[in-house]
Amino acid sequence: MDVSKGITIVGGGLAGLTAAIHLSKIGLKVILIEKNEYPKHKVCGEYISNEIVPYLDWLSLDISELNPTQISKLEFSTADGKMIHCDLPLGGFGVSRYALDAFLYQKAVQNGCEIIQDNVDAIVFENDVFTVYTSNNRKFVSGIVIGAYGKRSNIDQKLKREFVGKKSDWLAVKAHYSVGFPDDLVGLHNFEGGYCGVSKVENNVVNICYLASYASFKKYKNIEDFQSQIVVKNPHLKEIFETSKMLFETPLTISQVSFDKKKLIESHILMIGDTAGLIHPLCGNGMAMAIHSAKILSELIEKRCNNEIKSREKLENSYLCEWNSNFKNRLRMGRFLAFILQKHKASVFLMKIMIKFPKLLPIIIKRTHGQLVTMND
Questions:
Q1: What is the per-residue pLDDT across 9-24, written as a single tens digit (0 to 9) for each?
Q2: Do you find a cis peptide bond into 39, omega within 30 degrees of 0?
Q3: DSSP label of 326
Q4: 68 preceded by a cis bond (ω within 30 of 0)
Q5: Whole-model pTM?
Q6: Ordered domains of the chain (ranges, CATH)
Q7: CA distance 324 to 309
């Protein structure tokens, strides 16, 4: 592995930009290839657990510049409106991807990262070196390639990743709204066939993002019909949508969202963020996990550069161990909770238990969140 050839990161979302900032901070040459311009809205819950704040501080990222909301409470309701509340064990903050990705992009550029706006057509690994080919007939040679291109991409198809061949039954919808909503609260509301997260981001804007099963959505002509017929059957969501004004011309959508297990390493490409594994939005922790995964891999790459890790094989094995240690159980819990809440009788039973034993909900939250992410140094 010729690390002197630098590192190419494919994808410039949360995980990719964070890895670029980290690796450039420790003096490595980084090229990041991203197909979109900044800033850009993305389908996302836009709540970040405070577990990654110490790491952001180490990266010299002062998120307070974006005026995020400080979130400390959770409300959760079933489809019929039964509600429970609790304090979030670590709390978090709300900030839009529109603002945050642009902020991280600027920091990466300041750190000396080369950021290329282009589409990646192919990634070839030969003789222990990667060559990345783009749509604009450019090629980049590097010792390490990091995959950070999101939930689903044509790259996944070319790599013949297993999850791509399986039909995914999930659709995600997101928009920003003007509506009265507490600054310190994140709402998670169940409806038939899905879940909806509600929380405030910067500038007094409320982000509403929901995940719906294709089976429940396909009966309706469009998003508006689905929301009016299904989503607002939850009385809490009904009140929110009836008193809100959408700030987007149309909602953003993503189809074929897959929560199946993904291989962490494909053809020696090291995956981070949603490219490596996606936690159910009902756990509210995807953004923090994406940032944390960038930290884990970046620290291991530094050890490889310092020859503490002696080979590519040991780097890959170390990353697999670290990922499983930090995320495997959390992802499993997310899949389990999603399965339970999709079953009406099971979700009602779970709600009754949590109402009777209110301390149970914070325990469940802890199972899908991590500890404070501190630096080794």
A1: 999 999 999 999 999 9
A2: yes
A3: I
A4: no
A5: 0.92
A6: 3-42+95-166+257-341 (3.50.50.60)
A7: 19
